[in-house]
Design brief:
alpha+beta; 5 helices; 41% helix
Length: 166
């Protein structure tokens, strides 16, 4: 396994081609990881996930306080499905922000899905398999659309952030 603490930088580098593919003349997309924190000492369940998400935010810059529960997904692979869906036919796909379905070719859409899978594989190469995940509120940094996904492995937790800004 790769060094878990290097995951945010590795993902930032690996996500650049995906972000470039999803950018358009008016919007900038971002795919990034918040800091990685250990899960040791955290109890499982919804409160445990909320505490882990808060620990991730506390490890970063900004001091965001979570004001609600983390909406846990039933499947530990849900985050992968969300990432892939957002870059292939969700809001991150430029054709959905503009009423021009021809804005990206089928090959470019397929490439976006493959790049998203590569980013997901890289995350798990650094942290280990994701055992639980959930949708967590968080700072939106002025983005017009965002999604923050808490990822929890056997040893580590982080938040995968997807965003689209003007």
């Amino acid at each position: 396994m790769l060094n878990p603490l290097d995951a945010p930088d590795a993902v930032a580098f690996a996500a650049e081609p995906l972000e470039d593919l999803l950018d358009d003349c008016n919007h900038v997309t971002s795919v990034c990881l918040f800091p990685v924190v250990p899960v040791a000492g955290t109890t499982p369940g919804h409160d445990g996930m909320r505490r882990l998400a808060q620990a991730v935010y506390d490890a970063g810059v900004g001091g965001h306080q979570i004001d609600g529960p983390v909406a846990a997904f039933e499947s530990p692979r849900a985050w992968r499905d969300i990432l892939r869906r957002q870059v292939t036919d969700g809001f991150m796909q430029p054709a959905n922000r503009h009423s021009d379905p021809g804005l990206r070719t089928p090959a470019e859409i397929r490439q976006a899905g493959e790049l998203a899978d590569d980013v997901a594989d890289l995350i798990e190469a650094h942290l280990g398999p994701v055992l639980s995940c959930g949708d967590v509120g968080g700072p939106h940094a002025g983005d017009m659309w965002w999604c923050n996904l808490l990822l929890v492995t056997g040893d580590w937790a982080t938040i995968l952030r997807l965003g689209v800004a003007d």
